[in-house]
User: Which sequence fits this backbone?
């Protein structure tokens, strides 16, 4: 079983690429998963997710804790993969007690509020490199290898904690800043883009209070009509090409 959480599709695409090499393997969105009993019979358990603020998103950390509370790890191979744009820093530290393998893969940036999406050329190059790298991980996963792609450097734990605190602060009112501008054609697609069902529709899209700042709606709106305050206006959006038809 390969669980994933994904805003713009990077983590989804990595999970999917690996699952394609394992017979009968399925990719499962972790945000709505509750039936942990299903994991009892799994030979391999994977979690694929994006890096947020030098750590994993809270929704992923909560899921991981819940999963390992229920899971009998005996005889199972457990792996985690973080997709990141700059550095995953010390994100491994929150997982090190639980996983047999930890992989990291650099992917295009999807935070177009605090940063920028890459140019189309850079995006293409990054995606090609990521496919090659993920093929290498897949070999390890198929052979249940203990591979930890993490090299501790002095102060990494402290720096990661600071990064996490900073992102928490920066995004604390994120959900309240989301709105659809005049480009919105009322197609209602955004309702299906949200992995936590935080968007409803009443004349125009309405955002609830459960946003986990995944940037899915912002990047996926076909009209680029979803903004976060003023910072995202006119900025290039990014969506992984394999994510186009994935809805929640
Ligand atoms: C709120 C937020 C915080 C992020 N923080 C980091 C970070 O600290 N380091 C990093 O390398 N990338 C960071 N990123 C970039 C994403 O981790 C990266 O683009 C990831 O591959 C997105 O995956 P997804 O499309 O599966 O959501 C951040 C993205 C978001 C939305
Ligand atoms: S996806 Fe974009 S255009 Fe469609 S309803 Fe939502 S905000 Fe409007
Ligand atoms: S409302 Fe929040 S959680 Fe939902 S898709 Fe938009 S950014 Fe992601």
Assistant:
């Amino acid at each position: 079983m390969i669980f994933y959480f994904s805003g713009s599709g990077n983590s989804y695409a990595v999970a999917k690429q690996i699952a394609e090499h394992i017979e009968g393997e399925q990719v499962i969105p972790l945000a709505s998963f509750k039936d942990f009993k299903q994991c009892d019979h799994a030979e391999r358990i994977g979690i694929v997710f994006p890096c947020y603020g030098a750590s994993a998103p809270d929704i992923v950390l909560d899921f991981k804790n819940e999963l390992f509370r229920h899971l009998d790890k005996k005889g199972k191979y457990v792996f985690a993969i973080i997709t990141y744009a700059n550095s995953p820093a010390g994100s491994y530290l929150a997982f090190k007690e639980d996983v047999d393998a930890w992989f990291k893969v650099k992917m295009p940036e999807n935070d177009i509020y605090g940063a920028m999406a890459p140019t189309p050329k850079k995006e293409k190059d990054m995606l090609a490199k990521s496919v090659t790298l993920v093929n290498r991980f897949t070999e390890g996963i198929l052979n249940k290898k203990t591979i930890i792609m993490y090299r501790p450097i002095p102060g990494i734990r402290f720096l990661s904690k600071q990064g996490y605190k900073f992102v928490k602060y920066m995004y604390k009112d994120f959900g309240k800043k989301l709105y659809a501008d005049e480009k919105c054609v009322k197609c209602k697609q955004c309702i299906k883009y949200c992995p936590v069902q935080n968007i409803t529709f009443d004349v125009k899209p309405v955002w609830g209070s459960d946003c986990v700042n995944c940037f899915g709606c912002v990047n996926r709106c076909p009209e680029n009509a979803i903004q976060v305050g003023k910072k995202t206006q006119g900025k290039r959006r990014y969506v992984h090409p394999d994510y186009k038809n994935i809805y929640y």
Remarks:
- The chain has six helices and nine strands.
- Residues 6-11, 50-54, 83-87, 107, 109-111, 163, 167, 171, 213-215 surround flavin mononucleotide (ligand 1) (CB under 6 Å).
